[in-house]
Fold:
Amino acid sequence: MAERKHSKTEQEKTHHHMPKPSPTLSETVEKTEQAADLSAFSQKAKTETAELRDAFLRAKAETENVRRRAEEDVIKAAKYGAERFASELLAVKDALELALSSESVTAEQLREGVALTLKQLSAAFEKARITEIDPQGQLFDPHQHQAMQMIEADAPANTVVQVYQKGYLIHDRVLRPAMVVVAKAKNEIDDA
Structure:
């Protein structure tokens, strides 16, 4: 039995030192085809990678251009956003200057001129979506009104009983709150 182990070990030793047989022609062709397939696959992957990289760089550049254009639009809107409103106000300014330059104007003519100028100003406000807040008789709204005083009055509590100065909205945002006097609840002692 020991001889068998020994002889097997001898065979293993000699087997390892023996040269490997040369590959057959079909094995060589198969390996060459596999190498060609791998080379084609590698080339295809490189081409697709280059195309994807190019597409990514183009998309990145386009995104940067859109961002830059948007920033320019915001700057232009801030800079020239009031242009239309300002051009509407030029007619108002012209009318006021004309009224001041006239030397022989009667009070009635002056009043008519001021009324027309106010009409021009109101039209400019309307085009710019500036609306009046005139809360006389309405409930006090702290978002649109500024209470200057509270008085006892013959009106429900928190009702606007006097308007010192009208307020204005631009679209839905308060441009200036209305300055108002608000009714407070009458004391019960006064009722007795």
Confidence is low (pLDDT under 50) at residues 188-192. Helices lie at 2-17, 25-80, 83-101, 107-127, 188-191. Strands lie at 130-133, 145-152, 160-165, 167-170, 173-176, 178-184. The first helix runs from residue 2 to 17.
